[in-house]
Amino acid sequence: MNTPLPDDNGLWIRRFHPRPDSRVRLVCLPHAGGSASFYFPVSRAMPASVEVLCVQYPGRQDRRTEPLLDSVQALADKVYEALLPWTDRPIALFGHSMGASLGYEIARRLEQERDVVPAALFASGRRAPSAHRDETVHLRDDDGLVAEMRGLSGTNPQLLGDEEVLRMILPAIRADYRAAETYRWNPGPPLRCPVTTFVGDDDPKVTIEEAAAWSTHTDGPFTQKVFPGGHFFLAQHQTEIVRLMAGQLEAPARA
């Protein structure tokens, strides 16, 4: 049975550049503290064959007043349900940092519960699910959390210098960090979809070896691309990353 597509004003899914004739959809999952708008440039840059769906988590921007979710599993359940109406054509997943863990859990749900094998999982700036580190940034006070964000250079410095804005965004950022840092891999069957990892060669959050361990989480093809830079290397290498993803996705789109 075909499920009607939701309108573009849904809570979870943002379609900045509708491409009704596309043959594949790329779901973009933000990092901790990130929002759907972070991926607006990626959506704009993708070719006409790839429609981009950007996920908006609760607690930010137009969802600022909604209850926060502070576990990857809870987020995965919600995003998975929101994505089901969009699986009428091939779907791929792209997540950076926490978003990569989330993408993995969504891919698991799609494969195991719906027998929908994603066209690809692109895991950026994140250790493999089985490569655990003990991290406690979410337990720091507000100053410690802000210091972490400044060190990673993924948040607009003007926002971090505005006390009123900080009061609004810090609860969501803390919830995201709690979700990312308390995530634990539950062993199970490997994915069937292709997995591609992107990693910065100077990323304090993940080593090249920890990123390469994603290869153990799929029976499909695995590739890894290393870029110069730290945790937010993708900001400097967006054109190349978009080109790599589009090249991989356009092949099944033409099939």
UniProtKB/TrEMBL annotation:
Keywords: Hydrolase. Belongs to the thioesterase family. It comes from Streptomyces nondiastaticus. Gene3D superfamilies: alpha/beta hydrolase (3.40.50.1820). It comes from the Bacteria. Residues 27-249 form the Thioesterase TesA-like domain. The keyword Hydrolase applies. This is Thioesterase II family protein. The keyword Hydrolase applies.
